[in-house]
Amino acid sequence: MELELFRQDLIQTSTCAAGTMAVMPLTEEKKTQKVAAGDLSGVIQCFSVKKGDFQVAFKTLPSKENKVTSLVLGKGKTQRDKIFLAAGSQIKGVNKKGKEFFRFNTQLTETIRRVDIFEKNIWSAGEYVHNHFIEGRDKALYLCPDRINDATVVPLAGPTELWPVLACQDRYVRVLRGSAVCYEAPTPAAPVSLQYVPESHDPQHRFPQAKEVLYGTDVGTLVQLLLEPEAARQGFTLPNPKKQGAVATVYSGIDFTKTGMNNIVVGREDGGVEVLDLEEAGQLTSVYSVKLTESINALDGGFVTGLLAQEFVLHSFSGKIISYAPPGGGLLAPPPEAPSRGPLGLRKAAPPPAAPLPGAEEEERRASYARQIERLRQEISALRQEIEAERTRFQARGGDTAQLAMSAPFTVQDKCKLEADEACYVLTIESAVPIFTVAIQSNAVLQMLDVPTNVAILSRSPPDESNGNLTLATYRCQDSTNRLAVKFKVREGRPSSLSAFVIPAISPKACLVVRHTIKPLCLHSRITAMDADRPTNELLITGSFSAGDVHGWITGVLHDLPPSLPPGQDGATYYFTNSLLGTQLMIKYRAGEARFLSDLVSTLGILHEHCMREATNAKQRVTVSFNPSAQSLQHSVALVWPQLEKQRTLKKTYMMLEGLQELRMQDGDVSYLSPEYRSVLDRADKIRQEYKEQPQHLDHLVALIKDLYLDFCKLTGVATPKTRIPALDQLLLDPGSSLEDLMEFLTGQRGVWALDPGRGVEPEAEEEAPSGGGSQGSRWPLGQATVREAEREV
């Protein structure tokens, strides 16, 4: 079943934070529901729509010091029409007429990102701290081990006993009871949005006592979680095969499809909006979808523009408030009678009135649109008059355009995220005003990739190595767009930085710079466990350092870690996986000891180099021991080899493509060619497209195997002959070489190296020099259980 929904742009606010809009409940009067919204300029406003006319109930003055970061309605019986908002460390209460009746200064050092109110209870969530206040006094405090992305409260123990539920960056949904964690539910990816659903999507009623929570992840999946006081069960999961943006907000309060169960509306960071229906088999299907050009920060619903049908309302990053109504709803006239009330005072949905004649409905809709157009024209005329008045005052004061550009009001939000499926990064830049140009600068070699959804032309400049600018690129937007995605690949090994210079399409020109750090192990992402069957190498560092020192060391190498050690712990354990190769890393540390396990020795080489540098700078005495595994070397190379072989074949195919096409132009009929060559001609366009990015990718894989070989030799104390590196290059680039040839070369079965699995790494007797040549050096077999120790004291 496909839905038909009509879009209606309601009002424009300033740029907004996530979760700063709410639809107020229906009143006894025959009116539509009001919408309350806050923005980052500190303005709070409440408006309603009646027969196409917009009526502003109240609107506060802007305040740069009081940016609205959360706006909700009270959950108590007498609070459902009260607006509560968080601004900085303050929590305020405003009634439906705009009068402030409550203010509470929490004295918190963090900005409150989420607030919930139930009678005398206040729950506030910052970046890492969650607080519970009763009548303004501290009741409970919880310090989260990782960043809190979203929070809500759920009546798990009864209608009046609400428990906080947190969506945390370390891939856990935590249920709190007081200051303690009742239990943790692991998630497949980092949850970024959380929504409690009073009417559960469980048609079989298998768990009647469970409370449903829907959470969206940063990889774009939606998951149902059924919470009980003692445990949680995972329900359905909505995958993301099209690789859409992260699920920024979720709403479920309207049954558009009339199946007896509310539909789920999903808003994404890339502007995608979907209406989902749950089938009897438990599968989610999309019944409506639309794509906007900016992220969706809030979703709600109700009778907003008319009383004939409910509609959902969204609040976008730039401040647009837009409603989507089914046919017959929207800006049509309200029914003759207001909906009745239930026994608990809750307003029931209005019964469907008699369907108006198609001609009358069309005339009413046209009249509503005409009123909207006239209202917009009046607003544009008023804005033009204000602009002319401001321009006149500016010229009268002899205004400086440079100073005007510096004070140009535009907001940019950006995010640099690892796409694990493609082993690349995506830098997303979103501006409140259309983007004119984005310039990219980095001191690392970035492989810039095409993004099909971009409406920008990429121009690359030659690197300026003397100034450390190894990547210079410019994106010039052709159409009006507020969102741009920059996709790139980068090698692991050394820290680097990325700067993006955003120039909006406003006059006079201004520029805003956003910066991101690319850490040495940038392609590693967090996982919850490690495969114990893999052959691994072990790096052990001991000394007089503290657990906090080690945590500081590893946060300088890896992304996706909390900035400080988890509270109340003298150590921690983390697991990572390499998104390019699939290798894994375990980090386990405590005071005086740090243990690193990985099946990729290059990962340990990077960690060893960084930790030694940090220990040297801190003048700490440490001891390092390394336990290598020849099997892990073979295991790692076997993971890289299929990709290397694919890229070599692609290069060979591309090189012969030009000659084959010349033959076809000369001869016309090329049926005499072998099936292999004819297949190359048939796939000419696809081969060119793949080869466009191939040279850097092939070089990347070759360099990866070379680094793997050199790091293994370095950590095992083997002095690698430099004369072997050119031979290794030739072996890797030769399409005729096999994995067995490469393994013989790395393990020393070719040339002057030999493999002796039963022995440790130690020099053997020097071989005799061949006639007519010099000494070939010593032979160093690569052992499996060798331990090398080194002590460094500064």
Indicate the topology.
Elements: E1 6-12, E2 21-23, E3 35-38, E4 44-50, E5 53-59, E6 68-73, E7 83-87, E8 90-94, E9 100-105, E10 114-118, E11 121-125, E12 129-134, E13 137-143, E14 148-154, E15 163-168, E16 172-177, E17 180-186, E18 191-197, E19 211-217, E20 222-227, E21 232-238, E22 247-254, E23 263-268, E24 272-278, E25 284-291, E26 296-302, E27 311-316, E28 320-325, H1 358-396, H2 401-406, E29 412-419, E30 424-431, E31 435-442, E32 447-449, E33 456-461, E34 471-477, E35 483-489, E36 496-504, E37 512-518, E38 524-527, E39 537-543, H3 547-555, E40 571-578, E41 584-590, E42 593-598, H4 601-617, E43 622-627, H5 630-667, H6 675-682, H7 684-691, H8 694-715, H9 724-733, H10 739-747, E44 788-792
Antiparallel strand pairs: 1-28, 2-3, 3-4, 4-5, 6-7, 7-8, 8-9, 10-11, 11-12, 12-13, 14-15, 15-16, 16-17, 18-19, 19-20, 20-21, 22-23, 23-24, 24-25, 26-27, 27-28, 29-30, 30-35, 31-34, 31-36, 32-35, 33-34, 36-37, 38-40, 39-42, 39-43, 40-41, 41-42, 43-44
Helix pairs in contact: 4-8, 5-7, 5-8
